[in-house]
């Protein structure tokens, strides 16, 4: 729990939006936060932000830095996105499972999209998944989310989830399966995703930025990190804007996002140059630095410095 300059406690939550390779920017923001000792009580992640948000939650965002994204971009061309994600889970999973569930760790939320009926599940798990995925992307531009509404539901796993079924528990045993499921975009991921025998697909179809779920944990401030300069929305279909200065469930919302399209730096969602990824990461670090400087009191850094603890 952080404090303001007046000593009033503030609980901070961070929601990191999905964005595939553009997520290198958000990772940079999280690295800057880590450099200044800014830690949230709750981290909310979805799809490509699962790795960066998880590393931030265990204090290893800076240690990994842009290296993960460089490897992911290279691997996407060589072996496909399914294998890139599975390899990253194998590489980083041990540290994440050890840190996320350790005593005193912040709450970690991992958003997914659950397939809610048998016919749709068969389609998403079978050879028709790729074409369905392409159609769902076309539907984004048409503003048509009817298939999503009929066949998917948001399920957010929590490292402190209760066995009620309403907020399922994320555990060391199911972390790998849930993390992979959260990333599975149907048009480009060949390997199906299941959790406890049920079909799941990428979080982004229903919840690409779980700011609402982070707010529901009772935090006072939600810092939502996006990866595009245009408005930040809850999902691919722009069903709900996450606006800077708004409130969600009583929590103040602060949005961090780049002022330029990362494509100008050489980073798009599914393809990126090595130089572009480094620039996008560095831009995130710079943005995070400015945010910390401007919001030091809200983040509790002013009061700590006043007690001689530094930032």
Brief account:
The chain has 311 residues and is of the alpha/beta class. The chain contains twelve helices and eleven strands. Strand 10 (247-248) and strand 11 (251-256) form a beta hairpin.
Nearest-integer average pLDDT: 92
CATH structural architecture: 3-Layer(aba) Sandwich
Order of helices and strands: EEEHEHHHHEHHHEHEEHEEEHH
Query: Helical stretch count?
Result: 12
Q: How many individual β-strands?
A: 11
Structural class: alpha/beta
Biggest sheet character: 9 strands, mixed
Instruction: Kindly report how far apart the N and C termini lie.
Output: 15 Å
Radius of gyration: 18 Å
Oligomer designation? single chain
CATH topology group: Cytosolic phospholipase A2 catalytic domain
Overall description:
The protein is of the alpha/beta class. It has one domain: Cytosolic phospholipase A2 catalytic domain (3-Layer(aba) Sandwich), CATH 3.40.1090. Helices cover 41% and strands 16% of the residues. The protein has 12 helices and 11 strands. The strands form 2 sheets. Strands 3, 4, 5, 6, 7, 8, 9, 10 and 11 form a 9-stranded mixed beta sheet that branches. A hairpin with a 2-residue loop joins β7 and β8. α1 runs parallel beside α2. It is globular and about 55 Å long. The protein starts with a strand and ends in a 5-residue tail after the last helix. The N terminus and C terminus are likely disordered.
């Amino acid at each position: 729990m952080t404090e303001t300059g007046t000593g009033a406690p503030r609980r901070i939550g961070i929601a990191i939006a999905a964005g595939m390779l553009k997520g290198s920017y958000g990772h940079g923001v999280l690295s800057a936060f880590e450099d200044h000792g800014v830690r949230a009580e709750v981290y909310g992640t979805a799809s490509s932000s699962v790795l960066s948000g998880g590393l931030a939650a265990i204090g290893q965002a800076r240690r990994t830095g842009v290296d993960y994204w460089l490897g992911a971009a290279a691997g996407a061309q060589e072996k496909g996105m399914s294998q890139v994600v599975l390899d990253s889970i194998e590489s980083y999973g041990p540290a994440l499972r050890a840190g996320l569930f350790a005593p005193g760790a912040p709450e970690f939320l991992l958003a997914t999209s659950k397939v809610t009926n048998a016919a749709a599940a068969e389609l998403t798990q079978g050879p028709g998944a790729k074409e369905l995925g392409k159609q769902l992307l076309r539907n984004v531009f048409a503003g048509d989310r009817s298939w999503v509404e009929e066949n998917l539901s948001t399920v957010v796993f929590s490292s402190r989830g209760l066995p009620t079924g309403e907020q399922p528990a994320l555990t060391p045993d199911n972390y790998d399966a849930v993390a992979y499921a959260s990333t599975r975009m149907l048009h480009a991921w060949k390997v199906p995703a299941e959790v406890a025998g049920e079909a799941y697909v990428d979080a982004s179809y229903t919840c690409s930025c779980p700011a609402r779920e982070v707010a529901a944990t009772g935090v006072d401030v939600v810092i939502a990190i996006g990866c595009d300069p245009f408005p930040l929305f809850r999902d691919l279909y722009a069903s709900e804007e996450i606006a800077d200065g708004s409130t969600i469930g009583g929590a103040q919302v602060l949005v961090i996002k780049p002022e330029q399209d990362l494509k100008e730096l050489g980073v798009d969602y599914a393809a990126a140059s090595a130089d572009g990824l480094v620039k996008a990461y560095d831009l995130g670090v710079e943005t995070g630095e400015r945010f910390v400087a401007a919001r030091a009191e809200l983040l509790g850094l002013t009061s700590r410095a006043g007690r001689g603890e530094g930032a």
